[in-house]
Each structure stands twice: as structure tokens, then as C-alpha cells.
Design goal:
This protein has 646 residues and is α+β, with helices and mostly antiparallel strands. It is built from 26 helices and 18 strands. It has five domains: 5-73, Winged helix-like DNA-binding domain superfamily/Winged helix DNA-binding domain (Arc Repressor Mutant, subunit A, Orthogonal Bundle), CATH 1.10.10; 90-162, no CATH class; 179-244; 253-473, Nucleotidyltransferase, domain 5 (2-Layer Sandwich), CATH 3.30.420.10; 483-562, SH3 type barrels (Roll), CATH 2.30.30. The strands form six sheets. The protein has a five-stranded mixed sheet. It has a four-stranded antiparallel sheet with strand order 11-14-15-16. It has a three-stranded antiparallel sheet with strand order 1-3-2. Strand 5 (272-276) and strand 6 (279-283) form a beta hairpin. Helix 9 packs across helix 10. The N and C termini lie far apart (136 Å).
Length: 646
């Protein structure tokens, strides 16, 4: 039998006419056709058995046979029946089920066009010789019986009959599970225990007395339970948010340079060494970095052992000195960024919805810069573009160090793991070969220079240009801060009460003759982050400058360390001297006895004598004499020597 479908181009060539009059005739005479999806769009194909006689005669002449021979070979087209009311309408199926039905229909029509038997067509399809695109989307296997069943369903109910219905030939639950059974399947399958489908099937039979075919169960879980539902119950809320929640992609072209800057911390994926009082220590240094939202340019950074608000202020200071003040900061909700020193009341105002909002009189760095602070959604690192930059730093910067450990121990093979648990007993790198903090800062400064001026960025709005180029092209008027005012900005702040000796901050007194006149009043003390001997006094209500306050014991030493690091070293030295004296006293104490020890020794010298028929006698043994235990022979040995003269 010949089952041939002809395109409009093929028919126009047979009749030696153009395509336009052919389409007009086909529309006027109502030729039956089917639409096929092609690379250029939609294409109509006409079934040869339903075409007019002149078209069939022209086709017969093209293949060298008569019209009668062609008519005897033609087979009728597969025509879908009218919608069956007992079959679920196609529009009420899920999107996945409708797509499956459409693919099955295309496969059936392709089989009719091929002229092959069902067995040959199914074998060629399963081998990947025909319809590779449908095979990829629909499935890799097709049997003769399955193709026959699809043809029957198509002839009975049309495209809707090809939609998956979980049909059973031998009893079962019919076309679908009932609502109660579906609820039980979800109840057992969506547990955090992550039961297998085999176990869900057994539990339905044992506990609910419900028999469910395994293949039917698999299809229901796969197609009916949405991916988002399975991710939420089986993988957690965070995974559900990261992979399913809709989001709006940020348009970077809407920003200009220094409009929004992003700040965050990162722990380097390599080990370094730092010098302390008792020698070298192995640590993983942390980076505090600020980048421009529009150009991705690195604006400021600072590297230290522990990230803190102080490292943030140092990175901000570098940015302001080189590029001016930004309009806004985008940061996370960590305590370093939400502190009053950096952000003031910004976090409190954005997150406290009810009740009285705490208000502190102390000013903050962002207020001094005239910048606002924006906090991203908690636990949503995707909202900070700097996270992707940190991934680039890990790949391009961190891996260049010999002490590279990776972000976790699975990043390297067992023989090269250098994480904390492997320092003792595992393969070690000599401490002398590790980079110091100063060396890491120098190397990272070179990396920043290369990234800003040498790396071409292919991200949105970058057009394969360097961050420096994009930064300068989108830069508006620079917003600077007066240089004479900056020394009051890069300071630590606290509200203190003036006492007769001045104000006391972290164990040190800050004094000024003008300050002593304000005895009993509240003032705001600002201490320089570079020189803790320099303090400045402000009025906490008006924010006006009052006077300087000197820390006499420390100012002349010119301390330039984080917080009170040098002060702590001096205190460690004092404690070391105390420990030495304590050790000396312990050595002397070994040869001397306390009153309690003498009393216990005296009690141990007293000997109690037992007197027959009288009271016990306590006798002090002479000094230097000890009681010696005399060995007494067993009485049984004396009985054996009955005639012993003793």
C-alpha cells in the first residue's frame, strides 16, 4: 500500500504551475491537509489518496505507472475521530502531557509517510535512524505493540487520546489515581526520609491496602508532582528558592558608575602565615572588597586575619581617597555591615516594622559620606553581584598559591589536602614557604591592577571592555569629601560621659583642658583607626566639633596598628613577666610545706596501740623512725610441726 503525502511545491512541479494558484485551488476545493513544523515555520502536506484525479494522474506518470495501478496501491489516510466524551479533553491535561500527545501524533504521521511496517518503523526509531529530535524528547525505545496502541487511541479520540492517561489493560485504577490515593502518594513520597518509589508502593499496600502499579506510580510522581514541590519537600527551602522561585534579572545598564557599590567579605582558599609573640601561625586570610555595580571595577579592599567593621572602613577609605564617595552601598545583613559604626540606624529602620525603633546618637561612616545603605535579602547571595567576582578570585588568584586548599577538602586529592585537620600528621608545607600577610597584600594589589585595566569583561553592559573603560564612560561628577574633614571620618565612635580625668575608652584616658570643663556631660569620642593616641570630641546632639583629646601614654609612640594591637602586645609582655615570676614561685614552693600539709604529716606519724582489756594508746613515733611490718608465718605450718621444741 502507498501512503504518500505531497507538499505544495511537489504538486506545483507535477502540474507545472506556480505555488500561488495551487494554494488558491486547494482552498477553493477544500483539499484535506496536515501542518508540519519545519525549520522555516509551518508546511502543509496533502494526502495523495484525497487529491483530485489530475494530480494523481500526474504523480502516476512521474513514477512510470498508470492511474489505475496507483489507485489500487493507495491506502486511506489515518483520520482522527471526533472527540470522545469519555476521554479527558486535551486542554485539561498538563503542559507536559499535551507536548507528549503532540509528539506522538507527529510520530504516527511520520510512520504513515514512511511506507514501512510498524515493526520496521519501530526498530529504526529505536536505533536512532529516523526522527532523532522526537526520539530525544519522547523516549529512546518504541515497540511494535506500543505504536499499534497509539494508532488505535489516535483513531478513537484524536490527539487527546495520545495524552498519557496511566491506562491499564488489566483492571487497575483506570485512567488515573483517585484524589485520596494521590494524597497518600504525596504523603509518603514527599517525606524528608526520601523513600524510594518501591518503598512507597509497599507502604501503600501494607498500611493503606491500596495496590498501585509501579510504572503507574513512576509516571504520576514524574509528571503530576511538580519539580518545585519535590525540591521544596525533599531538598529544602533554600534549594527551592535558588532553583524555582522567579526573579527579575538586574539591568546593569540602568546604573552609572559610583551609583551603587557592593561590599562583602571572602576567605581566601589558601593558607598563609602571620607573626605573633610565640612565633609563626598558619591562618587563612580574609578579603574585604568593594566593587562598582555598573563597571565591576574593584574600588577598595583590605586583607587581614579576621574580617570586621574595621576592615570594611579601611576598604571604604581606600575607595573614597581614589574615586570619591558613592551614592549607595549594597551589603548583606552580617553584623559587620549592620553595625552602628558603619551603617548607623539603616538596618534597624529597614527591618524593624513594629514597635519603637532603637535610635543611637552616635553617627556612622555612611552618614558622614552622604551615602545610603541597602541590605539584600538575608541568605540570598544571588542578589550581590560581588559573589560571582569572588568565584573568579578563587579561580584566578587563590589557585596560584602553593598553600591552596580549595573552598573545601574535596577540591584536592587526598595526598595534597592541607586543610586544618591535616596539619597534624598529614603532608605539610614548611611554614617558611607560605606567604606572609604583607606578601599576599602585594600580590593581590597586582591582581586588582590587572583586573581593572587588563581583563575584558563579557557581562551585561560591558561589551567586552575592561572595568576601567566602562567606569570612565559611565562616570558622572565625582563627589569628594573635604580633606581636612576626613580625619574625623576614619575613626571609631562612642558616646561617653566626661569625668574629672577626661573620657575613658578601652582602658585609656583621653584628656584636654577644654574637655575637663564639660565634666558630667555626654560627648561623642572619635578615635583614629590609624593612631589610637589621637581622639576628637564632638557634640552628640548637634554633631559639631568641640576639641581634640590626646591619649598621653600612647600618642608619642606613633602606633599604626589595627585597633589596639600594639597595646595588646605590651599587655602580653606584662603577662609573660608575671608568668615567669609565678613559675619561679612554684619552684620555691616545692621545698616548703603549707600548714595543712604539716598537719597531715603530723597525723600520719601517730601510732595507735591495741591493749588487751584496756583502752587504745596513741603514741607519737620518734622523728626519723618508721613502723616496719613483720611477716607472720601462717598457723597451719606450726600445726604441721607438732613436735617442734619451740
Amino acid at each position: 500500500m502507498t501512503d504518500k503525502w505531497l507538499t505544495a511545491n511537489e504538486i506545483s512541479e507535477l502540474l507545472a504551475i506556480t505555488k500561488r494558484p495551487l494554494n488558491i485551488r486547494a482552498k477553493r476545493e477544500g483539499w484535506s491537509y496536515r501542518s508540519y513544523t519545519t525549520r522555516g515555520g509551518k508546511e502543509r502536506r496533502y494526502h495523495l489518496a484525497t487529491l483530485p484525479e489530475d494530480v494523481q494522474k500526474a504523480y502516476a506518470a512521474s513514477i512510470g505507472i498508470t492511474l489505475d495501478e496507483l489507485t489500487s496501491r493507495l491506502c486511506p489516510a489515518v483520520k482522527p475521530a471526533a472527540p470522545d466524551p469519555s476521554v479527558k479533553p486535551l486542554e485539561k491535561h498538563t503542559t507536559a502531557e499535551r507536548d507528549t500527545a503532540t509528539l506522538r501524533e507527529k510520530l504516527i504521521l511520520a510512520w504513515k509517510d514512511s511506507g514501512r511496517t510498524q515493526a520496521d518503523f519501530a526498530a529504526a526509531y529505536s536505533a536512532g535512524l529516523i526522527l532523532p529530535d522526537i526520539r530525544t524528547r519522547l523516549g529512546e525505545e518504541l515497540s511494535d505493540s506500543t505504536l499499534s496502541r497509539w494508532v488505535r487511541q489516535y483513531e478513537k479520540a484524536g490527539t487527546a487520546g495520545l495524552a498519557p492517561r496511566y491506562e491499564h489493560n488489566r483492571g487497575g485504577h483506570g485512567a488515573a489515581f483517585d484524589p485520596h490515593t494521590k494524597a497518600l502518594i504525596r504523603f509518603y513520597y514527599l517525606k524528608v526520609n526520601k523513600y524510594s518509589l518501591r518503598k512507597v508502593q509497599r507502604m501503600l499496600e501494607e498500611k493503606e491496602n491500596i495496590h498501585a502499579e509501579y510504572s503507574m506510580l513512576c509516571r504520576y510522581v514524574r509528571y503530576e508532582i511538580g519539580k518545585g514541590t519535590k525540591d521544596y519537600f525533599l531538598r529544602g527551602e533554600k534549594y527551592f528558592h535558588d532553583h524555582n522561585n522567579p526573579y527579575i534579572e538586574r539591568d546593569y545598564t540602568r546604573y552609572h558608575s559610583m551609583q551603587v557599590v557592593v561590599a562583602d567579605h571572602k576567605t581566601f582558599d589558601f593558607i598563609s602565615r602571620v607573626k605573633r609573640v610565640d612565633g609563626w601561625h598558619i591562618v587563612r586570610l580574609s578579603l574585604t572588597c568593594i566593587t562598582d555595580m555598573r563597571s565591576r571595577k574593584i574600588l577598595g579592599w583590605h586583607i587581614d586575619e579576621v574580617p570586621s567593621t574595621l576592615t570594611i572602613i579601611r576598604a571604604v577609605k581606600m575607595m573614597v581617597e581614589q574615586y570619591g564617595c558613592p551614592e549607595a552601598f549594597l551589603v548583606d545583613n552580617g553584623k559587620d555591615f549592620s553595625s552602628y559604626w558603619f551603617a548607623g540606624n539603616a538596618w534597624n529602620e529597614q527591618h524593624r516594622k513594629f514597635g519603637k525603633k532603637d535610635k543611637q546618637a552616635v553617627s556612622c561612616v555612611t552618614d558622614d559620606l552622604g551615602s545610603i545603605v541597602q541590605f539584600c535579602i538575608p541568605y540570598r547571595g544571588q542578589s550581590k553581584p560581588i559573589e560571582r567576582f569572588f568565584g573568579f578570585v578563587s579561580a584566578e588568584h587563590d589557585k596560584s598559591f602553593d598553600g591552596y586548599t580549595g573552598s573545601n577538602t574535596s577540591d584536592r586529592i587526598d595526598a595534597l589536602k592541607l586543610y586544618w585537620g591535616n596539619f597534624n600528621g598529614g603532608q605539610k608545607i614548611p611554614v617558611e614557604e607560605l606567604s606572609t600577610k604583607e606578601e599576599v597584600r602585594t600580590i593581590f594589589a597586582r591582581f586588582v591592577e590587572w583586573f581593572n585595566s587588563g581583563r575584558r569583561h563579557g557581562g551585561q553592559g560591558m561589551n567586552n571592555n575592561t572595568p576601567d573603560t566602562v567606569f570612565n564612560e559611565n562616570r558622572k561628577e565625582r563627589r569628594d569629601m573635604p580633606e581636612e574633614y576626613q580625619k574625623y571620618v576614619w575613626t571609631r565612635r562612642k558616646i561617653l560621659k566626661v569625668e574629672r580625668n577626661g573620657v575613658r575608652f578601652e582602658g585609656e584616658w583621653y584628656v584636654n583642658k577644654d574637655l575637663l570643663l564639660l565634666n558630667g556631660r555626654q560627648v561623642e569620642l572619635r578615635v583614629s583607626i590609624d593612631d589610637i593616641g589621637a581622639g576628637y570630641i564632638f557634640d552628640p546632639e548637634t554633631g559639631s566639633y568641640i576639641c581634640d583629646a590626646d591619649c598621653g601614654g600612647l600618642k608619642d609612640s606613633g602606633i599604626k596598628e589595627e585597633n589596639n594591637r600594639k597595646v595588646n602586645l605590651l599587655r602580653k609582655g606584662l603577662r609573660k613577666n608575671i608568668e615567669e615570676i609565678k613559675k619561679e614561685m612554684d619552684e620555691l614552693r616545692k621545698d616548703r610545706k603549707t600548714q595543712l600539709e604539716e598537719l597531715r604529716e603530723q597525723e600520719s606519724r601517730q601510732v595507735t596501740l591495741k591493749v588487751v582489756g584496756g583502752e587504745d594508746l596513741v603514741v607519737n613515733s620518734p622523728a626519723g623512725m618508721t613502723l616496719v611490718k613483720t611477716e607472720v608465718k601462717p598457723a597451719k605450718q606450726k600445726i604441721k610441726k607438732f613436735f617442734d621444741p619451740d
